[in-house]
Each structure stands twice: as C-alpha cells, then as structure tokens.
C-alpha cells in the first residue's frame, strides 16, 4: 500500500525536525542530549514502517552493546580508536562512555543503513545473497563520513572528547576512523545476519511498498550536516585551539577543511542518493 498524501506530508514534517536536531547538535548548541533523544524518536517512527518492533529492538541492542564495548575498550587499551577519553560535556556515563553515545550511533547508523540500500539499489528491507555483506560494507563507509566531518570540531573547539596524543587531522588520529569503520561494520554485519536468519518475520508485510518519500527522508540528515558545516564556514571565527599534544590549530582552517570535506562526502552522497531514488521511480513507471 502506497503512502497517501497526508502521511507523506507528516513524514516530511518529521524530516524537517530532523534537520533541526542534527543541525543544532553539530553546531554545538547546549542541548545535545535532547537532540539525540529527538533523533532516536524520529528514527523509531521511520524505521517501524519497514521493520518489526523486534527487529528494531535488535538493531538498538546490537548498537548499544557493540558501541559501548569498543568505546570502553579503546579508552582502556587504545584499541581500536586510539588513546582518548570523554570530557564531562556529554553528561552521565556508562563506565567510561557517555550514555548519549550509543543512541547517537544508533540514529546515525540507521540512516547510513538506509543510504547504503539506495546506493546499492537494494529495495528489500531484508538483505539477501551477497547483499548480506555488501549493504553493511557500504553502510560503514557512509557512516564514517559523519565522523570525518564531526570529530575535528568536537575533539578540539567542542571539547567533547580528548585525544591524548593528538593527530594529524586537527588533533584526530587516523586510528579513530579505522576504529569507527570496524565498530560500525560490526554493528551492520550482525544486523544483516539477523535479518537474513529471521527471514520475512523480521520485516512488516508492507515493508517493500514504501514510497519514494521514505528514501528521500533518509537523505535529509546528510544534507543537514553539510548545510551546518557550510554555515559554520561562512560565519567562521578567528582564533586558535590547542590539542593535548600541544599542536595549535586555526579555527578558520578547521571550519574551511570540514566544509570542504563535507562537499565531497555528505553533499555528494545526498545528491547521488537523490538521483538514484528518482531514477528508480522512472524505471518503475510504465512507458
């Protein structure tokens, strides 16, 4: 059953709220926890159109366990992200990791998962055959884009987490991105295995008939992130921030670099995904 006009309008309103939530979070507004909660609520409303409540809970559970294990392990041992620790800026912690981190992984991971389906032209809610591996792989690359544009500011001017030995990318080491890829790939691959094992029982009966608006709404967060970074570049402030390794970084350079990176990652993926959804619609239209 196709989404009717009223439902489509409702979901676009929700997508607009998502822009606000993602944008204010990345802009460093003082309510990151509230914004992540809003993101999770929006993700739930979007995801439960395709996945059963049980599948949704499994994805949330996998994300919570895997992200916390990897993050706490890295803070204690340095593997897989590197040597870092969280400041008190993000609130209460579970062991050494703020409680808000796992929901943030969950929300951004969900949209990366959906974008991977678009890029691979996989409309099935349940990956099959080689897509059981390909969807998690592509979703992991797409997911790391978030960290590529977010971490430099959060780890320096934002002060949300601290890299003890610094790094070449505005105080962030290469190991951080390798660790992120490993972490999110583990999450996606476990979820793909779950969906493959559960079969049709993992998805809603109407899952394969969602309209194009469903896919466009999953693209909105990527546009939002890129727009925020562009706005930050246009309103950049002069100044210097020093990382724990003693390296000085120009705030203007940080803003310009992350904006430029977002153009060829977030903007590009959003544009390509939008074109692919539109092309898919044309291919399904009888001539």
From TrEMBL:
One Pfam family linked to the record: Caroten_synth
KW Coiled coil (keyword) present: no
Coiled coil regions in record: none
The keyword Nucleus is assigned to this record: no
Bilayer-crossing regions: 31-48, 53-70, 90-111, 132-149, 169-193, 214-234, 259-278
Keywords: Membrane, Transmembrane, Transmembrane helix
Name of the protein in question: Membrane protein
Source organism: Catenuloplanes niger
């Amino acid at each position: 059953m196709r989404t009717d006009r009223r439902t489509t309008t409702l979901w676009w309103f929700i997508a607009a709220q998502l822009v606000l939530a993602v944008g204010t979070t990345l802009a460093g507004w003082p309510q990151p926890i509230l914004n992540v909660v809003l993101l999770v609520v929006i993700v739930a409303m979007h995801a439960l159109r395709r996945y059963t409540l049980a599948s949704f809970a499994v994805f949330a559970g996998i994300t919570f366990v895997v992200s916390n294990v990897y993050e706490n392990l890295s803070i204690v041992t340095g593997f897989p992200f590197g040597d870092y620790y969280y400041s008190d800026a993000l609130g209460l912690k579970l062991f050494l990791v703020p409680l808000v981190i796992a929901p943030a992984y969950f929300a951004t991971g969900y949209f990366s998962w959906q974008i991977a389906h678009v890029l691979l032209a996989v409309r099935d809610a349940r990956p099959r055959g080689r897509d059981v591996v390909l969807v998690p792989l592509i979703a992991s690359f797409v997911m790391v884009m978030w960290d590529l544009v977010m971490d430099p500011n959060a780890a320096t001017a934002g002060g949300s987490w601290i890299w003890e030995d610094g790094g070449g990318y505005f105080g962030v080491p290469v190991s951080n991105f390798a660790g992120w890829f490993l972490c999110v790939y583990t999450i996606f691959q476990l979820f793909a295995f779950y969906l493959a094992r559960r079969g049709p029982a993992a998805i809603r009966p109407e899952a394969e008939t969602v309209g194009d608006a469903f896919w466009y709404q999953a693209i909105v967060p990527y546009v939002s992130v890129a727009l925020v970074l562009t706005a930050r570049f246009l309103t950049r402030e002069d100044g210097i921030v020093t990382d724990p390794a003693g390296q000085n970084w120009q705030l203007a350079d940080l803003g310009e670099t992350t904006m430029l990176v977002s153009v060829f990652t977030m903007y590009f993926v959003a544009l390509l995904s939008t074109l692919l959804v539109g092309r898919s619609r044309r291919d399904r239209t009888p001539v």
